[in-house]
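Try this one yourself first.
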């Protein structure tokens, strides 16, 4: 199910910077109107100002359902409809699996995963009632591939978002709602501001995948929505890694463990 951007109204969480900001610009450039939300009110307002009359900004903390409801109401009051919801928030917790405390896990789950759940509770009834709509969930290649050992809360929640998105795709398709799952690899954003560290960690590990600018990702997402694709990758080569992982999980993990040992000087 493709989308006609002209007159479409999109609500984006985490839209004040990085991928969210880039998607707001890409959607607006194709004819959409955008409600830009972010936990940083100034950033949300700045991006909305960049887009002019095609956008409005609002501070939204996705851990508060009432604030998501306020975004829904603003979209309906200001633009008269909602067609697309992009769930695009995430925080990274780093540390050994034995060192990350429970409250850090709870915060990551509350923002990364339950923020999306709250969004579903707020926006899906409206989309279902109108019989059409689009949802884009931002996960990560780390939700597909186990290339990191020191970001387990992020990895676990992004795996959960991939699974939730697949379930949403199956459940919502018959109701006229398309679902896409964005799994970015390295993207030059300010997510480092959201990193908390517990214990002693080794240098961050990342896959040897394409590094992208946010503007590239914004266009990829807009194209993916137009094409009605479920999985949107910023690094196409990740598909080969995913196939290798699925074909032989034991062998894949053993290879990753060997590479990690070599990187840490143990091989």
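Now uncover the answer:
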């Amino acid at each position: 199910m493709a989308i006609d951007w002209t007159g479409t109204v999109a609500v984006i969480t985490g839209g004040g910077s990085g991928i969210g900001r880039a998607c707001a610009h890409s959607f607006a450039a194709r004819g959409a109107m955008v409600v830009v939300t972010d936990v940083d009110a100034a950033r949300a307002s700045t991006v909305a100002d960049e887009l002019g009359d095609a956008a409005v900004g609002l501070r939204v903390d996705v851990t508060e359902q009432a604030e998501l409801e306020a975004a829904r109401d603003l979209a309906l009051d200001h633009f008269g409809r909602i067609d697309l919801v992009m769930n695009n928030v995430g925080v990274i917790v780093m540390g050994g699996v034995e060192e990350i405390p429970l409250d850090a896990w709870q915060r990551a789950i509350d923002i990364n995963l339950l923020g999306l759940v709250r969004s579903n509770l707020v926006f899906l009834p409206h989309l279902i009632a109108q019989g059409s709509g689009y949802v884009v969930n931002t996960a990560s290649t780390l939700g597909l591939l186990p290339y990191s050992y020191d970001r387990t809360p992020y990895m676990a929640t992004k795996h959960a978002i991939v699974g939730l998105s697949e379930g949403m795709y199956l459940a919502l398709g018959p109701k006229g709602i398309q679902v896409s799952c964005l799994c970015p690899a390295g993207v030059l954003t300010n997510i480092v501001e959201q990193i908390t560290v517990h214990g002693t960690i080794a240098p961050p590990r990342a896959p040897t995948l394409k590094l992208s600018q946010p503007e590239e990702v914004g266009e990829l997402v807009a194209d993916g929505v137009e094409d009605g694709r479920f999985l949107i990758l910023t690094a196409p080569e990740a598909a080969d890694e995913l196939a290798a992982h699925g074909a032989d999980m034991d062998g894949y993990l053993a290879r990753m463990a060997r590479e990690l040992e070599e990187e840490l000087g143990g091989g």
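Discussion: The mean pLDDT is 91. Residues 9-238 form a domain with the Rossmann fold fold (CATH 3.40.50.720).
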